[in-house]
């Protein structure tokens, strides 16, 4: 039996820098949203994507079969599984970002860019907030932190129910955490390699993307920006049908997310 999910507040990553944020700009967590928009400028000829070099893509912290790791275990409630994984991914991505955060500054990353795409933060009134990448990441992390520690949204006490908005909030969280991971690859991969943490980053990304796919948490259009990487990293991680197919049922792992769709609300 599962014990109670640990309170994520106790998992706050100490290494994550606390940046001064204009509090007036911090959006209410329940309404936060952002949009990606091409920045209109001529695309800068893209630098060669270092993170696609085989030398780096083959680096993982573990060769675990992620497909098995993301599948909803029998007897575990779907929401409970989503909640526990959301909290874990949040902590890991926060930690991974903290390793390069000293290089992600208002000077180096004036906008939240992933390649030629820019993300903008929108406050609770739908007002576009111009922000640097570190500010955007702060918005994401503080909003998610607030949500995952809200007992009404991520209940940890026995018998307490998940709210109706739970799944849609989880989807939002995954979408924003994806932006953070994509930014690390696109703007800070060199530093990650210098720290010899690209194996961890690749592993985290693979696990994260397969989890997203398994439960249909993020629109594929949103993640398309990193499809080249996803293809390389995830193609060897589980899409290759679970050959030994223990419980005999799905002979084609290709249908992938078919079973555990999270319904759109
Ligand atoms: Zn940055």
Describe this entry's structure for a reader:
α3 runs parallel beside α5 and α4 packs across α5. Strands 1, 2, 3 and 4 form a four-stranded antiparallel beta sheet that branches. This protein has 265 residues and is an alpha+beta fold. The protein has eight helices and four strands; from the N terminus they run βαααβββααααα. Residues 8-31 and 238-261 have low confidence and may be disordered. The chain has helices at 54-57, 66-70, 78-100, 133-148, 166-194, 198-214, 220-223, 227-234; strands at 33-38, 112-114, 117-122, 128-129. It is globular. β2 and β3 form a beta hairpin. Pfam families: Mob1_phocein. One of its GO terms (molecular function) is metal ion binding. This is MOB kinase activator 2. Stimulates the autophosphorylation and kinase activity of STK38 and STK38L. Belongs to the MOB1/phocein family.
Strand content: 5-15%
- How does the helix and strand content classify structurally? alpha+beta
Taken in chain order, the helices and strands follow as EHHHEEEHHHHH
Q: Tell me the distance between the termini.
A: 30 Å
Number of separate helices: 8
Molecular shape: globular
Which cofactor or ligand species appear?
A: zinc ion
Low-confidence stretches: 8-31, 238-261
Query: How many distinct beta strands?
Result: 4
Mean pLDDT: 79
The biggest beta sheet reads: 4 strands, antiparallel
Binned, the helix content reads: 40-55%
- CA gyration radius, whole angstroms: 18 Å
């Amino acid at each position: 039996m599962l014990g109670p999910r640990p309170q994520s507040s106790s998992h706050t990553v100490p290494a994550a820098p606390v940046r001064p944020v204009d509090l007036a700009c911090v959006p209410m967590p329940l309404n936060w949203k952002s949009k990606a928009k091409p920045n209109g400028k001529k695309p800068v000829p893209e630098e060669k994507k270092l993170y696609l070099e085989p030398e780096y893509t083959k680096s993982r912290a573990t060769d675990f079969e992620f497909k098995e790791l993301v599948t909803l275990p029998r007897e575990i409630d779907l929401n409970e599984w989503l909640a526990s994984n959301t909290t874990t991914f949040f902590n890991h991505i926060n930690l991974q970002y903290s390793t390069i955060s000293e290089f992600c500054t208002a000077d180096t990353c004036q906008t939240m860019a992933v390649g030629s795409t820019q993300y903008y933060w929108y406050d609770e009134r739908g007002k576009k907030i111009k922000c640097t990448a570190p500010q955007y990441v702060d918005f994401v992390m503080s909003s998610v932190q607030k949500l995952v520690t809200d007992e009404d949204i991520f209940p940890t006490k026995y018998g307490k129910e998940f709210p109706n908005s739970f799944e849609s909030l989880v989807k939002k969280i995954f979408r924003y955490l994806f932006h953070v991971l994509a930014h690390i690859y696109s703007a800070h991969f060199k530093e990650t390699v210098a720290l010899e943490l690209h194996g961890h980053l690749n592993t985290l990304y693979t696990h994260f993307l397969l989890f997203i796919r398994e439960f249909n948490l993020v629109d594929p259009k949103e993640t398309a920006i990193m499809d080249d990487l996803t293809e390389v990293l995830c193609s060897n991680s589980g899409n290759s049908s679970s050959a030994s197919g223990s419980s005999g049922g799905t002979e084609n792992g290709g249908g992938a997310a078919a079973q555990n769709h999270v319904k759109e609300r």
